[in-house]
């Protein structure tokens, strides 16, 4: 006689599969006319691409450490050749999934993906320049840092910032899904949440970093330093006639050059933090701050009891 227990297990497993399929109808992705579903970008592949790019942006620090001045160009070229083909596939998947034509093999998406990949790779020298300024800002801003190499290898803020700067370039080129997947991977590892749509100037330093949140439309100038637990968020979400949040509205802070924001500060809404201002720890702000100001928690608490206070 056969094993009836196994037969029962198989029957139960079959029922589970059927019920899972039925339960997922509301999450079903769009299928092309052929019945084939458009493949989504692969999270695992994108993580590999970012790690490959990290070895190009910081040669000798990540990947092979046996790189000489004579071999670095060959090393970069070999890695970027593989990145180009892999990234183009992931970008095409993103474009095809969003493509209204729903054609399985969309030549327009193929051409756009190729062009976006070329333009992205052409921006890598500028990304590397920005990251070099970020590394120097980390070393200059942290007395505990023994050298720039320590910041590159050890600081979670620099890891998150590297992912952000790569994702921001793709975001600006009109790629969907992929940029957010890149920044959310860094978020999961570091606790630093930066939306790829944010704008961040050179020489940016996140000290410690854990719990930092920077929203989609936030704009950060040059030589800005922020500490753990800082939120640059939205105060409210305007709704459309269907009660859904309106997309694309400027709703996050504008932080000008040379600002310092200490740990736990929360700044909400499209407010301006003027050049050179210093925002103290645990401050809650929903109003503009003039250039050169020093804002403390005690000042904010006092302002809540005074008419006409702007903070």
Strand order of the largest sheet: 1-4-7-10-13
Distance between the termini: 80 Å
Topology-level CATH name of the largest domain: serine acetyltransferase, domain 1
Task: Give the C-alpha Rg.
Answer: 24 Å
Query: What is the 3D shape?
Result: globular
Strand content: 5-15%
Q: Could you say which structural class the secondary elements and strand pairing correspond to?
A: alpha/beta
- Low-confidence stretches are none
- What is the chain-wise order of helices and strands? HHHHHHHHEEEEEEEEEEEEEEH
- DSSP summary: helix tally: 9
* Share of helix, binned: 40-55%
Biggest sheet descriptor: 5 strands, parallel
- The CATH homologous superfamily of the largest domain is termed serine acetyltransferase, domain 1
Question: How many separate domains make up the residues?
Answer: 2
CATH class of the largest domain: Mainly Alpha
**What's the overall average pLDDT, rounded?**
89
Describe the structure.
The model has no long low-confidence stretch (mean pLDDT 89). The protein folds into 2 domains: 35-191, serine acetyltransferase, domain 1 (Orthogonal Bundle); 211-311, UDP N-Acetylglucosamine Acyltransferase, domain 1 (3 Solenoid). The chain is α/β, with parallel strands linked by helices and 311 residues long. It is built from 9 helices and 14 strands. Helix content is 45%, strand content 10%.
Task: Write a concise keyword list for the protein shown above.
UDP N-Acetylglucosamine Acyltransferase, domain 1; alpha/beta; serine acetyltransferase, domain 1; five-stranded parallel sheet; about 45% helix; 2 domains
